[in-house]
Structures are given as C-alpha cells and as structure tokens.
Amino acid sequence: MIDETVEEIQEMQTHSSSTVAVKAARALEDLLSRDFETVEEFERALDHNSNALRRANPSHASLVTTQRAIVKMVTDAESESVEQAKERMSQAIDSVVEQVVTAKRRAAENAAPQFEDGMTLMTHDYSSTVLEAIENAVADGVYLDVYVLEARPRYLGRKTARVLGEIDQVDATLIIDSAAGHYLPECDRVFTGMDCIVDGTLYNRVGTFPLAATANEVDVPVTTVGSSAKIVGEAFRFENDFRSASEVIREPAEGFSVENPAYDATPTDMLDSVVTDEGTWEY
C-alpha cells in the first residue's frame, strides 16, 4: 500500500493536497501488519517509509508536515514494545487525519460567506476546499455564476466544471486558460486553493500567478482558501515539480525543449484575502 501511494502521489493521481496528506497518513497503517523484532526496527521502518511518502511530492506542505508529525509522535512516546509503538502510530495517524479533515471543513465554512448571492466568480484548477465552500454557500440559498479555467496541461479544471455542473444553483462555464483576461471584467472575485504559503509567497498549481496578476490589473479581488497548516515558515523549503513533456505535447519535441512546471509562485500582496480554518487575513 505504501509503494502504491508513493506512485499515486508522484503521478498526481490525487488532485487535492489535503486528500494526499490523508492518503499518505493512512498508507503508513500498512506497517501495522508487518513483523518487527524491536521498537527501534519499527521506528526505522516508519521513518524510512515516511521519508518515501514525503519525497513523492515535497512541494505539498500538508503532506510533509503531517508525515513529520506522525513520526515525531511515535518516537517521542518512547514505547517499550513493538505493540505499544504500533498503537501509538495508529493514534497518531487518526489524530493527524482528523486535524486535516477538520481544518479543511472549517476553512470552507469560513469562506462560504464570501460567496454572495448572484456573484460571478472565477476559479482555477481543482480545489476541494473551494468546492466545499461553494457547496456550503449554495446550501444557504446562494446562486452563483462560475468561470472555471481548464488548467492545462492536465485539464483539472474540467473536473471542477463537472462537479459544479451537477449543482442546480451554479451556472458553470469552462474556459481556456488564456481567456481569463477576457472574462475577468465580468467577475466579482477570483477564488483559488493553495498548495502552501511560504514567506509571503503563494505556491499553487501553475497558472495561478498569471490569473492573479490579470485580476489585479482589472481590479478583481483574489481570495485564496485552504488549511492554516499550509501556511509554513522558513523551515519548509518549497520544491517545484517539473512534469513530463508528454503532458504538453504527444509527439517528440524535435529541435526545441518543453518545460512543464506543476506550480508557480504568486506574491501574497496580489491577494485580497486568505481564508483558513483559523479565520480570514486581508492584504
């Protein structure tokens, strides 16, 4: 299960960073069924497998921080037996998963009031927290028009559009990324998710920076929604992921090169607000 989860994270088969953190935490439960002679052997195996999960996508702050938290809780417990260590790991996993799920839910609840009835908004890529916030707003009787950027080259915006298309009170329109500037003047606000915020920089799926820059140019406020655990300090070093050229072009690139970064960097001074489980910060 751990190896399969590492591969899934590397291939970005799971689109939500919060979901990635939960899946990675649960993957460690595979160690519960293995035999270990000593506590030290178990803790080495935990550290090794947790490192593998973190390395699968070191850009995910929530993945890195939750894995480190699980390892720390187990090693700090100083268990006297392997069974005690396994029990402590099981408790640590449950605790971390509950924290991630609760933080995501509260962030969506805090963001819901920003979705006003009759609003036209634009969103980018696929953020499960933004979608949950929209669902909360709709449950309160709000009607929305939503422009969704397709998010090339993996077209994750299509998944967002399909989810929104099933909500009666949402009129969703899928547009190509380069059409953002054409439709932004019709919008009241832009909403994005976040991979992480580090030292005044929002790192999120590529395309977020040009969307925020264009929104700033036409005076449309930008709000980012996500767990406070994704706002990290200098101890976390963001590492971009450069994806396969085959996601951009199917035929061989002859006479030219292809770059395919998964994330870009947006200065937080381009944002109007950041909404987390702990509240709202305005810039």
From TrEMBL:
<protein>
    <submittedName>
        <fullName>Translation initiation factor eIF-2B subunit delta</fullName>
    </submittedName>
</protein>
<keyword id="KW-0648">Protein biosynthesis</keyword>
<dbReference type="Pfam" id="PF01008">
    <property type="entry name" value="IF-2B"/>
</dbReference>
<dbReference type="InterPro" id="IPR042529">
    <property type="entry name" value="IF_2B-like_C"/>
</dbReference>
<dbReference type="GO" id="GO:0003743">
    <property type="term" value="F:translation initiation factor activity"/>
</dbReference>
<dbReference type="InterPro" id="IPR000649">
    <property type="entry name" value="IF-2B-related"/>
</dbReference>
<dbReference type="GO" id="GO:0046523">
    <property type="term" value="F:S-methyl-5-thioribose-1-phosphate isomerase activity"/>
</dbReference>
<comment type="similarity">
    <text>Belongs to the eIF-2B alpha/beta/delta subunits family.</text>
</comment>
<dbReference type="InterPro" id="IPR027363">
    <property type="entry name" value="M1Pi_N"/>
</dbReference>
<dbReference type="InterPro" id="IPR037171">
    <property type="entry name" value="NagB/RpiA_transferase-like"/>
</dbReference>
<dbReference type="GO" id="GO:0019509">
    <property type="term" value="P:L-methionine salvage from methylthioadenosine"/>
</dbReference>
<keyword id="KW-0396">Initiation factor</keyword>
